[in-house]
Design goal:
The complex is a heterodimer of chains A (about 325) and B (about 350).
Chain A lengths: L1 E4 H15 L3 E5 L9 H10 E3 L4 H13 L3 E8 L7 H5 L5 H4 L9 E6 L24 E3 L4 H13 L4 E6 L6 E4 L12 E4 L4 E5 L3 H14 L4 E5 L2 E3 L3 H11 L2 E8 L4 H12 L9 E5 L8 H7 L3 H10 L5
Parallel strand pairs in A: 2-3, 2-4, 4-5, 5-7, 6-7, 10-11, 10-13, 13-14
Antiparallel strand pairs in A: 1-8, 6-12, 9-11
Helix pairs in contact in A: 1-6, 7-11, 8-9
Chain B lengths: L5 H27 L15 H8 L7 E5 L4 H6 L3 H8 L23 E5 L5 H15 L5 E6 L6 H12 L4 E7 L2 E2 L2 E2 H4 L1 H4 L15 E5 L3 H16 L5 E6 L23 H4 L4 H9 L2 H11 L5 H24 L15
Parallel strand pairs in B: 1-2, 1-3, 3-4, 4-8, 7-8
Antiparallel strand pairs in B: 5-6
Classes of the chains: A alpha/beta (about 325), B alpha/beta (about 350).
Chain lengths: ~325, ~350
């Protein structure tokens, strides 16, 4: 084991999969524009290409190449750029296997950075994964650590379905242990990152770090928090979350999205619907406040969930006797 | 027609007739078996010559993608009309098991990779398949079929740009039938409004643009064939504007809730009151036109033409009978095939 930054872990997964499988392609915006690009050098200009800034064509062509037997990874840079080509993501890629009774497979990975809440203002900071988690046929990966970034990207490339791979921009240079060689984290398997008995905190993506910090502070207050990272939103490992809630009786879900567009709301609904008898207190949602992310730093930070908000929510929560 | 032998021409005529007869049977189903076809269907009558002329230019391992107006292509590729009709009737023995219906016919084994029901959005899929063909390096060519309306979509422009930039082995066949549902082409297309052919759009992407009489299968074959040869030799894509006139309305009437209704009159008549335009299109109907030409030049005798028609009628009657007799899928199969 050695340490790698999150973004390098993603890159290592793509590189290793391209080495392992000649059908893996990597194309998109602003990659491979010079001869010393590492992917270009390793795999050549047939399999690695810069595309024009044409999201509909990039994603649509990935779908077509996948139908024809390849496994493209599309570099989209920012998650919001998918919105330009939404039809391809939620009404094309995910439909063909079903509509053709399995004649066609669409193994495409859409690599999309999100949540760049570092002064990127209103249009490049969105946390939009919630929009994609209920789309039949689509899978959604949400790595929070360098190791999971590598393992989930590997699994996404090997999966026969379209996968949206959301990586958080503020994690880009975060270092962590990453296994060398082959490392696969199965899609649909949550990780219990910290065990505890008093409250379950489900933290999505970047919020995992905030939740772990909160759990540490809560321990000082005598509250033992269990922290779960679902790692993928589709499939969602509801069973692991419900098992934890059965143990703790309390659930807090932390999501950088705005509440009504959040994955947290869906997780809360699952807990209320399927785990009601376990709950000793209302499920708490800690989400971004309902506004466009502003440019100015104090306003930006005010909107977002953080460790302090998690701690406060847990301590103020009513607990049934 | 020196380069086409007698058999090839007779094959073309037969395929045109098969598409026509199939579409007539689909249309007839709305009245003969009300409720059998759900939702929206779109017919290829009027485009037979364009479809057959285009597909005649392909090699066996070439591929194509098309739109929701997709019944004609698989018929020519050799897909069993029984399976196509059963799909349109939503039955278990359908080409896609009832999961797709009229708008999403697909036969991967015959190179028919897919059909998008959203206007223009299949063009990048075809472009991606052409990228795959380029990487594979076996000389395969992809045909991308779409209508004139699709050329107003960003997907069209983005795809043609990349196809030309990367010299992809693809031919873009725009079936220009003059109408985007009920909007006439000169109401929505700057080239058409300026009196220019839509093929001039190719110029913006530095690729050849050709306009061809889509009612003449031999002319279509020559034009698409030259474009296919060009693509196969690595010179890149071509935009072919094939002028067709759909002889039916855009689709069957939609009357939710309940049973979809029969086909209304063509928009030229129903919306614009332009009976003369529609009657002229009828007079120029490519199917009898090609028959007349083949009979006149001795390729086909009138008796042989009648025999072909008889055979085709029987084939399509069998397709209807088969589809009507095919059971529905089990309801609980609806949750299968969500993920691969």
């Amino acid at each position: 084991m050695r340490e790698l930054p999150y973004i390098a872990a993603i890159g290592e997964a793509i590189h290793q999969e391209m080495e392992r499988d000649e059908s893996v392609l990597y194309f998109g915006q602003n990659i491979a524009t010079t001869d010393d690009d590492p992917y270009l050098k390793a795999f050549g200009s047939e399999r690695v290409r810069v595309t024009p800034i044409s999201e509909t064509a990039e994603i649509g062509m990935a779908i077509g190449a996948a139908m024809a037997g390849y496994r493209p990874v599309v570099e989209l840079y920012m998650a919001e750029f998918m919105l330009v080509a939404m039809d391809q993501v939620v009404n094309e890629a995910n439909r063909f296997h079903y509509m053709t009774k399995g004649q066609v497979k669409v193994p495409v990975v859409l690599k999309a950075g999100y949540g760049f809440t570092a002064g990127w203002a209103g249009q490049h900071t969105g946390t939009i994964y919630g929009m994609f988690m209920g789309v039949p046929g689509l899978k959604v990966a949400l790595p929070a650590t360098p190791a999971d970034a590598k393992g989930l990207m590997t699994a996404a490339i090997r999966d026969d379905n379209p996968v949206v791979f959301f990586h958080h921009y503020l994690l880009t240079l975060e270092h962590g242990d990453v296994p060398e060689g082959e490392h696969v984290v199965p899609l649909g398997q949550a990780n219990v990152v910290r065990e505890g008995g008093d409250v379950t905190i489900v933290a999505l993506g970047y919020m995992l770090g905030q939740a772990l910090e909160a759990a540490e502070q809560l321990a000082g207050e005598g509250v033992s928090a269990e922290v779960i990272d679902p790692r993928t939103l589709a499939p969602l490992d509801t069973a692991t979350i419900l098992a934890s809630v059965e143990k703790t009786g309390r659930l807090v879900v932390v999501d950088q999205s705005t509440r009504h567009g959040s994955a947290a709301a869906v997780i809360a609904a699952e807990a209320a619907s399927e785990g009601f008898s376990s709950l000793k207190a209302p499920v708490q949602l800690i989400c971004a406040l309902d506004a466009t992310v502003p440019y100015s730093e104090p306003m930006e930070q005010y909107l977002l969930p953080d460790a302090a908000k998690i701690v406060a929510a847990v301590l103020e929560s009513p607990v049934a006797a | 027609m020196p380069e086409f032998d007698r058999e090839r021409l007779r094959w073309m005529y037969t395929q045109m007739l098969r598409i026509r007869e199939f579409e007539e049977r689909v249309k007839g189903t709305f009245e003969e078996h009300p409720g059998t076809i759900r939702g929206h269907t779109h017919l290829a009558d009027g485009a037979e010559a364009s479809i057959v002329g285009s597909l005649a230019a392909l090699r066996e391992d070439d591929q194509l993608l098309a739109t929701y107006r997709c019944h004609g292509y698989p018929l020519v590729l050799g897909t069993d009309p029984k399976a196509i009709m059963a799909e349109i009737y939503g039955r278990r023995d359908g080409l896609c098991g009832g999961y797709g219906g009229s708008m999403h016919l697909t036969d991967v084994g015959r190179g028919f990779l897919g059909t998008s029901g959203i206007v223009g959005q299949g063009i990048p899929h075809a472009t991606g398949a052409a990228y795959a063909a380029q990487i594979r390096g076996k000389g395969q060519v992809v045909l991308s079929f779409f209508g004139d309306g699709a050329s107003k979509q960003g997907a069209f422009h983005e795809s043609l740009n990349i196809a030309s930039l990367w010299k992809l082995p693809i031919v873009f066949v725009m079936e220009n039938n003059n109408y985007n549902v009920v909007t006439r082409v000169e109401q929505e297309d700057a080239n058409a409004a300026a009196g220019e052919p839509l093929a001039v759009k190719a110029k913006a992407f530095s690729m050849p643009g050709e306009t061809v009489d889509g009612g003449d299968p031999v002319a279509v074959h020559e034009t698409v064939g030259a474009a296919v040869d060009r693509a196969r030799s690595g010179e890149g894509p071509t935009l072919v504007e094939s002028l067709v006139y759909r002889l039916s309305a855009h689709g069957n009437l939609i009357a939710p809730p309940g049973v979809p209704l029969h086909y209304p009159e063509h928009e030229a008549v129903a919306v614009f009151g332009n009976t003369e335009e529609y009657e002229a299109a009828r007079r120029g109907d490519p199917v009898p036109r090609f028959r007349g030409r083949l009979v006149e030049d001795g390729t086909l005798s009138a008796e042989e033409a009648d025999e072909i028609a008889e055979r085709v009628r029987a084939e399509m009657q069998e397709a209807v009978d088969f589809a009507l007799a095919s059971p529905f899928p089990a309801a609980e199969e609806a949750v299968e095939y969500v993920y691969a």
